[in-house]
Design the sequence.
């Protein structure tokens, strides 16, 4: 798409280490660019296997003005389609999730099979060629049960590197044998990048997340050595030693734990690391113990800390011994973002017996609301004439910087090599 | 108005037989063009006589950003005015319908008579010329009690042909002696053209309108001969014979019944036809019998089927022996349309005695809601990147094609001969 | 900012004595221009002393997309700041009014003192220079307790003339010893200029304000001599004589009362005049008597009429012997305006004892609602194609004309001498 000279200039001259110019957060021009370049040409985290476990199960995901239908076929394959009838363009499936046989358009009854093939279209006459009117497909890639989609015809190839790297981390948590325990959909009143930046640091945790900071250590996400007193220096040393010993223990259990950080170095950026938790060290709960009695996969040890998985541009995930929490951020408007959170437990876990729902979701329900409020304040700020980019802390905000670096880099590469850039990767 | 090169190209190169390009349904540019060219220069169906039966009765109609005031004078003439005070521009009548004496502006009391003449304006001093500050008139044309307005100074002349053609069909139903039994205002979440296209076919009726398809035959609006089995072929033969015999009977009663189809062949496009109804064949009710005991006009036969009247760009009407249902569609936004439905019965019919309101309005209340839902799905579809124009059925959607042909033709003629085109017609 | 040729033409060719062209009331282009030129470069009435009486008290005011924080320091000085953190731009104070110690950003805890100096920013490392990251200041000027702000770096200098002229009128009412009795925030559905124009005349009072016209004389704001009958001529003579005698009496009490009218003759336009009230002549109440038993300042006479103070672009105020009502209008959107009304009584007056709240606020609560409705009708009118500027009455609308003259003049001077114009004044 064409962009203004001002915007082109801002993309090509971003000042490293500083928050983005206000235009990136609140203009319709950047919103359209983000939908085109970022959400239209990259792998987007959309859903996970347990959201559509059986043949005929489907979910729809809104990516900008695209509604994408994900449908599990009889062959257990998940396929993606544009959720638009090829007759007069009506939306086909008008629900977030449901179970269907064939895909039938409510308007005039046009009927498609699970591969998108048009099976039936009444009154179209003898000369009508059904084979030209199948649904338009969308790429789907499962990474150990995390489902990514790409709207581009030629998706970035390095999803393979991401899959290869993350699979050993994720696979032991056995998503395929999980079930959905709870879903929350929260509309945050801020740009999607502010929601992501908020997620990429814990500098704000201490003052804003009284629940989350029970299991999470204040030292897990960086600190400035200049400001440490003796007590804190000692606490940090202890924490760093814990990481070292826990990593050794987890690796011995077959659980890769070391940090892999590829946030801005790849088209399909990501990061992972297994971190110890505080207290009992088992889970993101207020008592730091496992929320569910049925451990995931083949685990018989509940003290596995939390495996964080981040993907660019739009997801983060916490894998623990007893449950998984996955998050996606999807832009709704320049100043509105849908944050979808799904809590997963073992498919055989029984609510009220193996886990209490409140206890399972408490920490992140509260934390999400607190973050939504911060994102709102940040959005309000960017809309003011007095806003100007401010400095990121090199100690507590390096991953925010990586996010911005990746984002600006992706825009810039598109400007420099429009369309050609993807095929080359 | 100036339009973009892209839009000009799309207008001049529309592919016949296919739904319109997405831009026509969801851009502010086309919305503005529609308000200017279609709703600003054509005859728009606005109301009907029984909505303002007595002198001093008035209704207001919103056409884009114009509020039009229709007022019946002491001479029983209905006049139209822009609903704007000539002093500081305040809206004059702030209600959908009311009864007034003179037209008095609430702001500073400026007062106009029923012809729009300024009668009174306090404090304006001796030199003030009231004769230069009358209300701005709007053309009004009654066609047997259906009130059409035109905002253009030189309205299309062929309203006369429409009036001359339709009057013998409509007049026997004697609108002047009807009263309003019910009004419904439904805001559909789709472009006005999607609301009209939905009205111009019954391909969708079978799957979506369980109530409407009780009185309406599935064969009344076309079918593909290629797909008929023996039983349906026989049913169709029977239905076509019924039309023939009923038309002969109705013509003998003085009721013209044959189809007149001028949907895309004239500036003021229209279509009419009298069709038999199913079952008792009397009315659009769930038992197919007349809803009102007081028949209209001089009728003493209730089995008169349904006379359909369609006008471009924005109305449709069903005239039966016992009641009339009139519909108008008015654009509120690119993706919002007001559908106004008015049910009319004989002015002497008494509710609860001659008719039950539920029974009278049931079929179309349900049908309107079902259509609104389909229009919503169609609008959602046009907003997706994957939307592309799809093929209309030559058998069941020819009038949708005529609507699009008329619409694009009207835009094109304006582009080719800006403003001059109207005067010539 | 760049403006379209059409708008430039309309500014430079406004027809005197007529309401403004529609574009001034309902386009985003003019809204942006108004925020830049009018609200961005002039003195804006924002609040009054009793709204933040103690050190640490603060209020926030939204001027377009700017949130301005007004904070009273330990030195009793009121300072203004852009309400935006210098770290990642979050809004600092997220409430209309509150009391704080330091200014602490909720996001990451950055902390500023009452002069805007950055005191504390964790994790920023040794090289970080706090002195470069203070809050951005905004000019604040108190005129006898009325607080004006200016967002421009070089505010119009003639606020001094306004202060010098108005102080003798206002000071005797002793704002510093008042307290807030009630606040109303009303969002009017019209452009801010329509709210101001509505305030600048009482031509509409007779037909719309049954409560306000109890204390206010219909002759207080002009009349056409051409239309007077004998009785009204006599009433007017009586009223004019009353003004003369009351002015003499008030001046003798040390209260300047004569009209000063500088509405369009200065950059910082204003007008003031003390007018007699009807009946008991004491206050804007339904019984025309003082609403509060504790008179303001050193008054021991309650029959002081009403001192009107108007400032361009956005305020009006009524000062009486027993209470003060202040009003500000702030644009929220082309068709939305916040009207804030604050009722003030002596700080020692006790509700229920010295005054009844209902009785105090009744007249203006009703009047504001009535005006909001008129502003809504006026806005609706300007959105119609048929709107055209109409004539102001030379007798009852001269101050509306002055408002428009000032407004257009300010825009024009900016167009002719961009930015330079202010410094010269």
Sequence:
């Amino acid at each position: 798409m064409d962009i203004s000279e001002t915007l082109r200039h801002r993309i090509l001259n971003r000042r490293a280490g500083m928050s983005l110019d206000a235009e990136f957060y609140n203009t319709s021009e950047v919103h359209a660019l983000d939908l085109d370049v970022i959400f239209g040409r990259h792998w987007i985290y959309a859903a996970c296997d347990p959201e559509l476990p059986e043949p005929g199960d489907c979910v729809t995901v809104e990516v900008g003005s695209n509604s994408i239908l994900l449908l599990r076929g009889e062959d257990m394959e998940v396929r993606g389609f544009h959720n638009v009838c090829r007759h007069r363009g009506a939306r086909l499936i008008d629900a977030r999730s449901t179970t269907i046989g064939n895909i039938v358009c409510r308007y005039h009854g046009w009927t498609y099979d699970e591969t998108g093939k048009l099976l039936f279209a009444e009154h179209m006459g003898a000369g009508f060629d059904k084979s030209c009117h199948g649904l338009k497909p969308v790429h789907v890639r499962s990474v150990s049960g995390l489902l990514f989609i790409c709207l581009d015809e030629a998706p970035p190839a390095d999803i393979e590197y991401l899959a290869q790297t993350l699979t050993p981390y994720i696979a032991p948590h056995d998503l395929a044998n999980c079930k959905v325990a709870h879903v929350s959909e929260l509309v945050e009143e801020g740009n999607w990048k502010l929601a992501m930046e908020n997620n990429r640091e814990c500098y704000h945790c201490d003052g804003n997340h009284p629940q989350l900071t029970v299991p999470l250590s204040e030292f897990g996400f960086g600190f400035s050595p200049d400001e440490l007193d003796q007590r804190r220096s000692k606490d940090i040393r202890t924490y760093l030693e814990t990481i070292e010993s826990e990593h050794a223990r987890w690796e011995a259990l077959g659980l890769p734990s070391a940090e892999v950080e590829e946030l801005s170095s790849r088209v399909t950026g990501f990061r992972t690391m297994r971190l110890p938790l505080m207290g009992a060290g088992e889970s993101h709960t207020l008592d730091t113990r496992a929320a569910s009695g049925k451990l995931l996969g083949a685990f018989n040890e509940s003290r596995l800390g939390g495996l964080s998985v981040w993907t660019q541009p739009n997801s983060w995930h916490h894998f623990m011994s007893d449950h998984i929490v996955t998050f996606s951020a999807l832009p709704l408007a320049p100043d509105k973002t849908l944050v979808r959170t799904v809590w997963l437990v073992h498919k055989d876990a029984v609510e009220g017996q193996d886990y209490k729902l409140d206890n399972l979701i408490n920490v992140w329900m509260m934390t999400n609301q607190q973050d939504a409020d911060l994102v709102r304040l940040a959005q309000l700020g960017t809309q003011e004439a007095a806003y100007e980019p401010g400095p990121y802390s090199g100690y507590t905000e390096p991953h925010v910087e990586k996010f911005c670096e990746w984002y600006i880099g992706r825009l810039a590469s598109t400007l420099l090599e429009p369309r050609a850039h993807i095929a080359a990767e």
In short: The first helix of chain B runs from residue 5 to 12. The longest strand of chain B covers residues 178-188.
